[in-house]
Prior knowledge:
Pfam families: adh_short (PF00106). This is diacetyl reductase [(S)-acetoin forming]. Catalyzes the irreversible reduction of 2,3-butanediol to (S)-acetoin in the presence of NADH. This protein is an alpha/beta fold. Helix content is 49%, strand content 15%. Helix 1 packs across helix 8, helix 4 (101-129) runs parallel beside helix 5 (151-171) and helix 6 crosses helix 7. The protein starts with a strand and ends in a 7-residue tail after the last strand.
Amino acid sequence: MANKVALVTGAGQGIGQAIAERLAKDGFSVALVGRHLDKVQKVADEINGNGGKALAIKADVSDRDQVFAAVEETVEKFGDFNVIVNNAGLGPTTPIDTITPDDFEWVYKVNVGGVLWGTQAAHKAFKELGHGGKIINATSQAGVVGNPNLALYVGTKFAIRGITQTTARDLASEDITVNAFAPGIVKTPMMFDIAHEVGQNAGKSDEWGMSTFSDGIALGRLSEPEDVANAVAFLAGPDSNYVTGQTLIVDGGMQFQ
């Protein structure tokens, strides 16, 4: 990875922002992709202001053409492409009897579709550039064990683990590794929204909603986005070159595999 170029989806806030900032710190030129250009532009400006190299790109990961265009723009801007982090995702609270066909299509198109299209786009770029690369997908602690009231989200995160394992086998001969990271309960806007909805559904407080997810963390604290970014930095760097098809659980000791 002479030029070290990475693309991170869902990079406008939370875990995606922390990943982009960490990879920039590690010397990557980073493309930040998000549905809201103002959010990713703000993060890109901060990275550039701190001496890094960042590009903001507006794209909806559920749209295959937009994902391919984002990767192509990244290659054109930075001259190479080495790592994609398929991080963007949705996490609505969905008690089983409330799920509608529209809910199903919306969540699966973003969470699963975004990983499939990102994987395809990265593979195409790696082939055209004549080298291997790294594909890193966001699953979840909820993709390791089912969590209450999250049937749609959990289903997508289990699917991502299967896609990761399959594509790791399919692409290994091309010097492409494919791995996933599984955050636990992270202090992000999405997690606070989930906790609020769970509390509302039970007629209880936001704090009660969060406690339904955070009880049992061995390290005794919620995760910071930077905790997850540290793990992704390992998967993006050379120390993980002999690791593929794996899900790295970063949950402070909620699940043990």
